[in-house]
Amino acid sequence: MTDYKNFTVETDSDGIALVTWDSPGRSMNVFTEEVMNELEAIIEAVAGDEAIKGAVITSGKDSFSGGADLTMLQKMLGLFAEEKQKNPDAAIKMLFDGAGRMSWLWRKLETSGKPWVSAINGTCMGGAFELSLACHGRVAADSDKVRMALPEVKVGIFPGAGGTQRVPRLTDPQQALQMLTTGQTLTPKKAKQMGLIHEIAAPDQLIETAKKMIRDGLKPVQPWDEKGFKLPGGPVYSAAGANLWPPAIAILRRETYGNYPAATAILKCAYEGLLVPFDTALRIEQRYFTEIMQTTEAKMMIRSLFVSLQELNKGARRPGGIAPTKFSKVGVLGAGFMGAGIAFVTAKAGIPVVLIDRDQEAADKGKAHSEKLMDGLIKKGRATAEDKEKLLSLITATPDYGKLDGADLVVEAVFEDSEVKKGVTEKSEAVMPEGSTFASNTSTIPISSLATNSKRPEQFIGIHFFSPVDKMMLVEIIMGEKTGDKALAVAIDYVRAIKKTPIVVNDTRGFYVNRCVLRYMSEAFKMLIEGVPAPMIENAAKMAGMPVGPLALTDETAIDLAQKIMKQTIRDLGEEAVDLKQFELINTMVDTHGRLGRKNGKGFYDYPEKPAKKHLWPGLKDLYEQQDPDKLDVTELKQRFLVTIALEAARVMEEGIVTDPREADVGSILAFGFAPYTGGALSYIDGMGAKAFVELAERLGAKYGKEFDVPALLKDMAAKGESFYQRFDPYAGEKQAA
């Protein structure tokens, strides 16, 4: 057989070809144009060689494949946009043909006349799982490394290479729709229970088990290509179908509020495709995929949640010319909830941690947090007792600052008090190595101010975690006025080592994320004062695409914290810096009614003992005269939430606090869930165009006040027809170098 760049093909004495995918120079196999061309040649060669009885496809890497390289789709969309200006019909045809390439290649494989078996040895996602579903047999290794999914809906598209057709023909439609519309990840056990794979084998027996399926006479015909094939859930037009499809549509609407066109297209593809022969069904899927590829949601989500996220995770903002840091020890100051969480994620990354607090009892209590988290993972089957023992052995809980000797990085997470932070900084620097970095996890105090406590401000930086640390994937790295490149490189290396996403911001009150979140909460307070019923406030926010309503979010962070922030702002900047009506609302909640938030079981919500669910405090409607809900414009309420956050993100860019639009977008989604379908706070503006956004903001401003004032930057962008990714092109340096 021909030599291939990405594959090796070895045929054994039984005539079974072992096709091993191992793309050079990549940590994970992904589908590129070259990979698909080679795979097509292999399919044809196997089909045309009488000596070959069948083929097994596997991976030469630890994982099977991450699926398609979505940068390829992004380039296709770029070409489509260019062609559309010249010849719209030709552009649509080009996109349609490109969208169907993988789908018809997998169809070629499954109708080739030879049996194919997929031997899944690790992560198998997207197009790779669709390839596996097109194989006549599927075997997965019995390993924690093996995870299978069709997660495309999470980046604004859907499984468009036969996934919406093969899954509901292999498993019951309810499980199929759940998997497809959520991007659910499957273990080998779950995939086998659903009928999506045939066998689970010991890792060292994976290939042999796959070959045995062929030797035992595996038919080279898929069930849906055989006469008399019956759908697992029965026909669409049946009693069972009538009980499934109408509720499925309603459930999807309830979960997404119609904000995700790709999720809706999945239901349409499956429903329509199950009514027709398989090849026609693939054509239906291809048409919907072409349609979804043209949506603003797909364009923005692919850019932010795949391309930009990958680039930031790989250290896109890391300064060059500085050797990577291999962490041998990290110190964490403060064993409270935040510090304990930071110690946990650090130890989970295999890095030894010294967790320091004022006495041994407090330090031990912080370490116990890691024990509790590991117990939870063990209960869910995600960790073992050995994993727990290993992680806890990496955490040294102590009041002794001398144990910081040899630490590459020290992260301070003590109480939000400048004097307390000054004391621990001085104690730490007395024993830290000369070249190590000191970081503060402050959420409110400017880093440049804290750096005045340091003897080496160039090695002082902010590393701002979000709560709960073990679950939140974003970390804000804050540059002080004197922070040097070495400290930035160390901070990014650390955030990457603990498998979180770093964004780099310059110093300001509230940094980036908190400035945006406070706008979200503030708009809700303003609505309450206007007499908008609290349920409408929460529901409008969720309908706009926010995962948590602003009143619920305020309860989580604590209402008395909002009060403290307002009081501190007044002390620092004067009364004109806060909305005094909102200050009065917060004071009423805290001082008059003792409602502090979830932490004392009463805030904007009441928190009864389980199993009862939280519910909005009925007393909210008595605080202000209520408006008639029927006269309120829900669309406008939704717009107010998204526009006020987006305006703040634009101000942050204007002020130079954030300089890379990728970080503003990814940060807004990962930190507080800014409507992911928009691609993030700046992509929300880019998606509708700066001119349309400015007009919308001005309309809202005329009605609701100065928080909708449009910054000069946006007005200039609107006049010039610019987007943020043009004005602040994150790739400008690469283009100049090229």
What's the helix and strand layout?
Layout: E1 7-11, E2 16-21, H1 33-48, E3 54-59, H2 70-86, H3 88-110, E4 116-120, E5 124-125, H4 127-134, E6 137-141, E7 148-149, H5 163-170, H6 173-182, E8 185-186, H7 188-193, E9 199-201, H8 206-215, H9 239-256, H10 261-273, H11 278-293, H12 296-313, E10 330-333, H13 337-348, E11 353-356, H14 360-379, H15 385-393, E12 395-398, E13 409-412, H16 418-429, E14 437-440, H17 447-450, E15 460-465, E16 474-479, H18 485-497, E17 501-506, H19 513-530, H20 534-543, H21 550-557, H22 559-573, H23 580-592, E18 605-606, E19 615-616, H24 620-623, H25 634-654, H26 661-672, H27 681-688, H28 690-704, H29 712-720, H30 724-727, H31 732-737
Parallel strand pairs: 2-3, 3-4, 4-6, 5-7, 6-9, 10-11, 10-13, 11-12, 13-14, 14-15, 16-17
Antiparallel strand pairs: 1-2, 7-8, 15-16, 18-19
Helix pairs in contact: 1-3, 2-3, 2-12, 3-4, 3-11, 5-6, 6-10, 9-10, 10-11, 12-26, 13-14, 14-15, 19-21, 19-25, 20-25, 22-23, 25-27, 25-28, 27-28, 28-29
